[in-house]
Amino acid sequence: MKNTLILGKKIKELRLKNDMSLRDLEKKSKVSYSFISSIENNRYQASRDKIINIANALEGSNVNELLLLAGFAPESDVLNENDDIVVSVEIMEIVGKRVKGERESLKYKDSKWTQEYVADLIGIARSTYTAYENGTKLPPVDTLNKIADIFECDTDYLSGRTNIRKKTEMNLSFYGGPQSWTEDELEEAESAVRRYREMKERAVREAEKNK
């Protein structure tokens, strides 16, 4: 399960609670309605700026929550464990399962990889680390980076944004694949596909008329 799935669902829920159409949100956020639709349907990953613009346009939203769901650091420079940030339970569960899975995989090969051992490597209390694995607390961004370094994987993987442990494992194609395209390129690609489909539909209708 990816965070983008939860992010898209969250943005759509907030938009509907605000009784806004995609066009309404486009006007307030200055983000194109087609791109918002793509985010809601988990097709594309938005930039940090676009997430902030969307959050600011939606009454009742928490910009830091949406940033975390999108895999970005919150607006404050450092996310402390006492920061009052609403985080989806699903995110904590995803991080917990993946962090625990990484540690247990190492422990299977070497018994030293206990919760206490990893907690010492990070520099936190064992109880805090246990809460991370149990999915009852979300690691701050800097702590998640440390955990990723220890397990030699990407934070995107630990937070559920991808099933690829490290980006170097990805086989890229077609100018790096959609993951590496800019938002303008993604919007252009989507527009091109839409125009092509409309052209095909017109061709089919014309063919049916001429039968």
Brief characterization of the structure:
By secondary structure, the chain is mostly helical. It folds into 3 domains: 70 residues, 434 Repressor (Amino-terminal Domain), CATH 1.10.260; 79 residues, 434 Repressor (Amino-terminal Domain) (Orthogonal Bundle); 36 residues.
Helical percentage: 55-70%
Strand content: under 5%
Query: Under CATH, the topology of the largest domain is which?
Result: 434 Repressor (Amino-terminal Domain)
What's the SSE pattern? HHHHHHHHHHH
Please summarize the sheet with the most strands: none
| Low-confidence parts | 77-86
Q: Give the class from helix and strand content and strand pairing.
A: mainly alpha
In whole angstroms, how far apart are the ends?
Answer: 48 Å
Supply the CATH class of the largest domain: Mainly Alpha
Features:
3 domains, elongated, 434 Repressor (Amino-terminal Domain), 11 helices, 211 residues
What does the secondary structure layout of this molecule look like, with pairings?
Blueprint: H1 3-17, H2 22-29, H3 33-40, H4 48-57, H5 63-69, H6 89-109, H7 115-122, H8 126-134, H9 141-151, H10 155-158, H11 183-209
